Amino acid sequence: MALFASPCLAFPFRDLQPGETMPSFKLQEFKTGESLSSGQLKGNPMAIIFWGADLPLKEQRSTAILKEVKEQLDFFKQHQTRVIAINIQGDQPEKIMAVSLAIDDLIPIYLDDNREAYNSLGVYVMPTVLLIDRTGKAIFGMGYSRNTVSKLKEEVEILLGEKTRSQLAEEEEALKMTELTPEEKKAKYHMEAGFIMEKRRDTEAAIRQFITALQFTPDSPVVNIELGCLHLEINQHAKAKEYIEKAMAINPESLRGKLCQTQLLADQGQLTEALAAAQILSKTHINNHQTMAMLGNMLQKNDKFQDAAAAYEKAYQLLDKSINAETMDQ
Known about the structure:
CATH superfamily of the largest domain: Glutaredoxin
CATH topology of the largest domain: Glutaredoxin
Largest sheet: 7 strands, mixed
Number of strands: 9
Radius of gyration: 22 Å
Order of helices and strands: EEEEHHEHEHEEEHHHHHHHHHH
Strand order of the largest sheet: 3-2-6-5-4-8-9
CATH class of the largest domain: Alpha Beta
Shape: globular
Number of domains: 2
Number of helices: 14
Strand content: 5-15%
CATH architecture of the largest domain: 3-Layer(aba) Sandwich
Distance between the termini: 37 Å
Protein backbone atom coordinates (compact mmCIF):
# COMPACT_ATOMS: atom_id res chain seq x y z
CA MET A 1 0.00 0.00 0.00
CA ALA A 2 1.27 3.46 -0.83
CA LEU A 3 2.13 5.65 2.13
CA PHE A 4 0.84 9.13 2.84
CA ALA A 5 3.09 11.70 1.28
CA SER A 6 5.11 13.73 3.75
CA PRO A 7 7.48 16.64 3.13
CA CYS A 8 10.72 15.01 2.04
CA LEU A 9 13.25 15.18 -0.73
CA ALA A 10 13.44 11.47 -1.46
CA PHE A 11 12.45 10.57 -5.03
CA PRO A 12 9.00 9.04 -4.44
CA PHE A 13 9.29 6.05 -6.79
CA ARG A 14 10.94 2.73 -6.02
CA ASP A 15 11.44 1.61 -9.61
CA LEU A 16 12.11 4.88 -11.42
CA GLN A 17 15.15 7.09 -10.96
CA PRO A 18 15.86 10.62 -12.27
CA GLY A 19 17.13 10.38 -15.84
CA GLU A 20 15.40 7.06 -16.53
CA THR A 21 12.68 6.66 -19.16
CA MET A 22 9.13 5.99 -18.09
CA PRO A 23 8.28 2.26 -18.16
CA SER A 24 5.51 0.92 -20.36
CA PHE A 25 1.93 1.09 -19.08
CA LYS A 26 -1.58 1.94 -20.31
CA LEU A 27 -4.22 4.26 -18.87
CA GLN A 28 -7.87 5.11 -19.58
CA GLU A 29 -9.33 8.62 -19.57
CA PHE A 30 -11.88 8.83 -16.77
CA LYS A 31 -14.80 10.29 -18.72
CA THR A 32 -14.21 9.14 -22.29
CA GLY A 33 -12.48 5.81 -21.69
CA GLU A 34 -9.88 6.78 -24.29
CA SER A 35 -6.65 4.79 -23.95
CA LEU A 36 -3.30 6.45 -23.34
CA SER A 37 0.04 4.64 -23.27
CA SER A 38 3.13 5.85 -21.51
CA GLY A 39 4.80 5.99 -24.91
CA GLN A 40 2.44 8.84 -25.80
CA LEU A 41 3.70 10.94 -22.90
CA LYS A 42 6.36 12.48 -25.11
CA GLY A 43 6.77 15.53 -27.31
CA ASN A 44 6.38 18.12 -24.56
CA PRO A 45 7.41 18.25 -20.93
CA MET A 46 4.67 16.81 -18.75
CA ALA A 47 3.69 17.19 -15.11
CA ILE A 48 1.86 14.14 -13.75
CA ILE A 49 0.02 14.06 -10.44
CA PHE A 50 -0.43 10.56 -9.02
CA TRP A 51 -3.22 10.50 -6.47
CA GLY A 52 -5.71 8.42 -4.54
CA ALA A 53 -8.74 9.02 -2.34
CA ASP A 54 -9.35 5.77 -0.49
CA LEU A 55 -8.76 7.52 2.85
CA PRO A 56 -9.95 10.98 3.94
CA LEU A 57 -6.43 12.36 4.40
CA LYS A 58 -5.35 11.15 0.96
CA GLU A 59 -8.46 12.65 -0.61
CA GLN A 60 -7.88 15.95 1.18
CA ARG A 61 -4.22 16.18 0.13
CA SER A 62 -4.89 14.99 -3.42
CA THR A 63 -7.64 17.56 -3.88
CA ALA A 64 -5.46 20.30 -2.37
CA ILE A 65 -2.50 19.68 -4.65
CA LEU A 66 -4.70 19.33 -7.75
CA LYS A 67 -6.43 22.61 -6.93
CA GLU A 68 -3.07 24.33 -6.56
CA VAL A 69 -1.90 22.94 -9.90
CA LYS A 70 -5.18 24.09 -11.47
CA GLU A 71 -4.47 27.64 -10.29
CA GLN A 72 -1.09 27.46 -12.08
CA LEU A 73 -2.35 26.06 -15.41
CA ASP A 74 -1.54 29.33 -17.18
CA PHE A 75 2.08 28.96 -16.09
CA PHE A 76 2.28 25.41 -17.42
CA LYS A 77 0.58 26.40 -20.67
CA GLN A 78 3.01 29.27 -21.19
CA HIS A 79 5.86 26.85 -20.60
CA GLN A 80 4.39 24.25 -23.00
CA THR A 81 4.11 21.69 -20.23
CA ARG A 82 1.16 19.29 -20.29
CA VAL A 83 -0.57 18.42 -17.03
CA ILE A 84 -2.49 15.22 -16.31
CA ALA A 85 -3.63 13.42 -13.16
CA ILE A 86 -3.57 9.65 -12.69
CA ASN A 87 -5.73 7.92 -10.12
CA ILE A 88 -3.65 4.91 -9.11
CA GLN A 89 -5.73 3.85 -6.13
CA GLY A 90 -8.65 2.34 -8.05
CA ASP A 91 -11.10 4.65 -6.30
CA GLN A 92 -14.85 4.54 -6.84
CA PRO A 93 -16.17 6.69 -9.73
CA GLU A 94 -18.08 8.90 -7.28
CA LYS A 95 -14.83 9.77 -5.49
CA ILE A 96 -13.03 10.52 -8.74
CA MET A 97 -15.94 12.62 -9.99
CA ALA A 98 -15.92 14.67 -6.78
CA VAL A 99 -12.22 15.45 -7.21
CA SER A 100 -12.71 16.23 -10.89
CA LEU A 101 -15.48 18.70 -10.05
CA ALA A 102 -13.32 20.30 -7.38
CA ILE A 103 -10.81 21.24 -10.10
CA ASP A 104 -13.55 22.28 -12.56
CA ASP A 105 -12.66 19.40 -14.91
CA LEU A 106 -9.61 21.43 -16.03
CA ILE A 107 -7.03 18.68 -15.50
CA PRO A 108 -7.54 15.42 -17.43
CA ILE A 109 -7.87 12.46 -15.09
CA TYR A 110 -6.71 9.01 -16.18
CA LEU A 111 -7.30 5.68 -14.52
CA ASP A 112 -4.72 3.03 -13.74
CA ASP A 113 -7.30 0.26 -13.52
CA ASN A 114 -4.82 -2.57 -13.98
CA ARG A 115 -2.28 -0.92 -11.64
CA GLU A 116 0.31 -1.00 -14.39
CA ALA A 117 1.62 2.49 -13.62
CA TYR A 118 1.49 1.89 -9.87
CA ASN A 119 3.49 -1.32 -10.07
CA SER A 120 5.95 -0.40 -12.82
CA LEU A 121 6.88 2.92 -11.17
CA GLY A 122 6.81 1.66 -7.61
CA VAL A 123 4.81 4.62 -6.30
CA TYR A 124 5.10 4.64 -2.52
CA VAL A 125 3.69 8.02 -1.49
CA MET A 126 0.45 9.71 -2.49
CA PRO A 127 -0.22 12.24 -3.75
CA THR A 128 3.04 12.81 -5.59
CA VAL A 129 4.12 14.72 -8.69
CA LEU A 130 6.45 13.69 -11.49
CA LEU A 131 7.99 15.90 -14.16
CA ILE A 132 9.20 14.24 -17.37
CA ASP A 133 10.99 15.83 -20.30
CA ARG A 134 10.12 15.73 -24.01
CA THR A 135 11.65 12.28 -24.39
CA GLY A 136 9.76 10.74 -21.47
CA LYS A 137 12.66 10.79 -19.01
CA ALA A 138 12.03 11.48 -15.33
CA ILE A 139 13.35 14.85 -14.22
CA PHE A 140 11.80 15.60 -10.85
CA GLY A 141 9.53 13.91 -8.34
CA MET A 142 8.20 15.00 -4.97
CA GLY A 143 5.54 13.98 -2.49
CA TYR A 144 2.94 16.23 -0.94
CA SER A 145 4.13 19.33 0.91
CA ARG A 146 3.28 23.00 1.16
CA ASN A 147 5.80 23.86 -1.58
CA THR A 148 5.45 20.91 -3.95
CA VAL A 149 3.87 22.95 -6.75
CA SER A 150 6.32 25.84 -6.41
CA LYS A 151 9.20 23.34 -6.60
CA LEU A 152 7.58 21.78 -9.65
CA LYS A 153 7.42 25.18 -11.35
CA GLU A 154 11.08 25.79 -10.56
CA GLU A 155 12.05 22.44 -12.11
CA VAL A 156 10.09 23.33 -15.25
CA GLU A 157 12.07 26.58 -15.52
CA ILE A 158 15.34 24.68 -15.06
CA LEU A 159 14.31 22.04 -17.60
CA LEU A 160 13.55 24.70 -20.21
CA GLY A 161 16.82 26.53 -19.55
CA GLU A 162 15.11 29.66 -18.21
CA LYS A 163 16.93 29.51 -14.89
CA THR A 164 19.77 27.58 -13.31
CA ARG A 165 19.64 25.80 -10.01
CA SER A 166 22.17 28.24 -8.54
CA GLN A 167 20.03 31.22 -9.60
CA LEU A 168 17.00 29.77 -7.86
CA ALA A 169 19.06 29.06 -4.75
CA GLU A 170 20.26 32.67 -4.68
CA GLU A 171 16.70 33.96 -5.09
CA GLU A 172 15.45 31.71 -2.31
CA GLU A 173 18.28 32.77 -0.01
CA ALA A 174 17.64 36.46 -0.67
CA LEU A 175 13.94 35.99 0.10
CA LYS A 176 14.71 34.17 3.32
CA MET A 177 17.07 36.91 4.48
CA THR A 178 14.47 39.63 3.96
CA GLU A 179 12.00 37.67 6.11
CA LEU A 180 14.36 36.99 9.03
CA THR A 181 14.23 38.81 12.36
CA PRO A 182 17.53 40.15 13.81
CA GLU A 183 17.68 37.16 16.17
CA GLU A 184 17.10 34.73 13.30
CA LYS A 185 19.85 36.39 11.25
CA LYS A 186 22.31 35.93 14.14
CA ALA A 187 21.21 32.33 14.53
CA LYS A 188 21.63 31.75 10.81
CA TYR A 189 25.18 33.16 10.90
CA HIS A 190 26.26 30.83 13.71
CA MET A 191 24.38 27.88 12.23
CA GLU A 192 26.20 28.28 8.91
CA ALA A 193 29.50 28.60 10.79
CA GLY A 194 28.61 25.38 12.58
CA PHE A 195 28.08 23.55 9.31
CA ILE A 196 31.44 24.83 8.03
CA MET A 197 33.16 23.52 11.17
CA GLU A 198 31.32 20.23 10.70
CA LYS A 199 32.67 19.88 7.17
CA ARG A 200 36.15 20.54 8.51
CA ARG A 201 35.52 17.78 11.06
CA ASP A 202 36.11 20.19 13.93
CA THR A 203 33.36 18.79 16.13
CA GLU A 204 34.04 20.89 19.22
CA ALA A 205 34.04 24.15 17.23
CA ALA A 206 30.84 23.10 15.44
CA ILE A 207 29.13 22.39 18.78
CA ARG A 208 30.11 25.84 20.08
CA GLN A 209 28.65 27.55 17.01
CA PHE A 210 25.39 25.57 17.16
CA ILE A 211 25.01 26.26 20.90
CA THR A 212 25.38 29.98 20.16
CA ALA A 213 22.79 29.70 17.39
CA LEU A 214 20.46 27.98 19.83
CA GLN A 215 20.58 31.01 22.12
CA PHE A 216 18.78 33.01 19.43
CA THR A 217 16.42 30.29 18.16
CA PRO A 218 16.06 27.68 20.94
CA ASP A 219 13.32 25.76 19.14
CA SER A 220 15.18 25.32 15.86
CA PRO A 221 14.83 21.63 14.92
CA VAL A 222 17.85 21.84 12.60
CA VAL A 223 20.19 23.21 15.28
CA ASN A 224 18.93 20.77 17.92
CA ILE A 225 19.38 17.84 15.55
CA GLU A 226 22.94 18.87 14.67
CA LEU A 227 23.82 19.25 18.34
CA GLY A 228 22.33 15.83 19.07
CA CYS A 229 24.20 14.15 16.24
CA LEU A 230 27.48 15.89 17.10
CA HIS A 231 27.26 14.89 20.77
CA LEU A 232 26.65 11.37 19.52
CA GLU A 233 29.97 11.53 17.66
CA ILE A 234 31.84 12.34 20.88
CA ASN A 235 29.95 9.67 22.85
CA GLN A 236 27.98 12.07 25.04
CA HIS A 237 24.83 10.03 24.73
CA ALA A 238 22.72 11.74 27.41
CA LYS A 239 23.12 15.15 25.76
CA ALA A 240 22.67 13.62 22.32
CA LYS A 241 19.37 12.05 23.36
CA GLU A 242 18.15 15.32 24.92
CA TYR A 243 18.80 17.38 21.78
CA ILE A 244 17.49 14.74 19.36
CA GLU A 245 14.27 14.16 21.29
CA LYS A 246 13.58 17.90 21.42
CA ALA A 247 14.20 18.25 17.67
CA MET A 248 12.07 15.26 16.72
CA ALA A 249 9.19 16.56 18.83
CA ILE A 250 9.26 19.69 16.66
CA ASN A 251 9.98 17.99 13.33
CA PRO A 252 9.26 14.24 13.50
CA GLU A 253 9.92 13.84 9.75
CA SER A 254 13.62 14.82 9.94
CA LEU A 255 15.67 12.13 8.20
CA ARG A 256 18.88 13.37 9.83
CA GLY A 257 17.19 13.05 13.19
CA LYS A 258 15.91 9.54 12.46
CA LEU A 259 19.38 8.41 11.37
CA CYS A 260 20.95 9.73 14.57
CA GLN A 261 18.16 8.16 16.65
CA THR A 262 18.99 4.83 15.05
CA GLN A 263 22.71 5.25 15.75
CA LEU A 264 21.93 6.20 19.34
CA LEU A 265 19.97 2.97 19.81
CA ALA A 266 22.93 0.98 18.53
CA ASP A 267 25.42 2.85 20.71
CA GLN A 268 23.27 2.08 23.74
CA GLY A 269 23.34 -1.63 22.90
CA GLN A 270 19.81 -1.88 21.52
CA LEU A 271 20.99 -3.56 18.33
CA THR A 272 17.73 -5.34 17.44
CA GLU A 273 15.74 -2.12 17.78
CA ALA A 274 18.38 -0.19 15.82
CA LEU A 275 18.23 -2.71 12.98
CA ALA A 276 14.43 -2.52 12.87
CA ALA A 277 14.60 1.29 12.70
CA ALA A 278 17.21 1.14 9.92
CA GLN A 279 15.08 -1.30 7.92
CA ILE A 280 12.11 1.07 8.10
CA LEU A 281 14.26 4.02 6.96
CA SER A 282 15.66 2.04 4.03
CA LYS A 283 12.11 1.32 2.86
CA THR A 284 10.68 4.82 3.30
CA HIS A 285 13.78 6.49 1.80
CA ILE A 286 14.74 3.80 -0.66
CA ASN A 287 16.80 6.07 -2.92
CA ASN A 288 18.88 7.64 -0.15
CA HIS A 289 22.48 6.45 0.22
CA GLN A 290 22.60 7.46 3.91
CA THR A 291 19.69 5.24 4.90
CA MET A 292 21.17 2.34 2.96
CA ALA A 293 24.58 2.85 4.58
CA MET A 294 22.91 2.95 8.00
CA LEU A 295 21.13 -0.31 7.17
CA GLY A 296 24.48 -1.87 6.24
CA ASN A 297 26.00 -0.67 9.51
CA MET A 298 23.15 -2.07 11.61
CA LEU A 299 23.17 -5.38 9.73
CA GLN A 300 26.90 -5.63 10.36
CA LYS A 301 26.46 -4.93 14.08
CA ASN A 302 23.87 -7.74 14.15
CA ASP A 303 26.38 -10.13 12.49
CA LYS A 304 24.39 -10.29 9.22
CA PHE A 305 27.51 -9.77 7.15
CA GLN A 306 26.27 -10.92 3.74
CA ASP A 307 23.20 -8.68 3.93
CA ALA A 308 25.37 -5.85 5.21
CA ALA A 309 27.68 -6.13 2.19
CA ALA A 310 24.70 -5.93 -0.18
CA ALA A 311 23.38 -2.84 1.63
CA TYR A 312 26.78 -1.14 1.51
CA GLU A 313 27.02 -1.87 -2.23
CA LYS A 314 23.58 -0.36 -2.77
CA ALA A 315 24.59 2.70 -0.73
CA TYR A 316 27.68 3.15 -2.90
CA GLN A 317 25.64 2.93 -6.08
CA LEU A 318 23.14 5.51 -4.82
CA LEU A 319 25.94 7.85 -3.73
CA ASP A 320 27.66 7.49 -7.10
CA LYS A 321 24.40 8.27 -8.91
CA SER A 322 23.84 11.30 -6.70
CA ILE A 323 27.33 12.66 -7.40
CA ASN A 324 26.88 12.15 -11.15
CA ALA A 325 23.53 13.97 -11.04
CA GLU A 326 25.08 16.92 -9.20
CA THR A 327 27.92 17.04 -11.75
CA MET A 328 25.41 17.18 -14.63
CA ASP A 329 23.60 20.11 -12.95
CA GLN A 330 26.77 22.20 -12.74
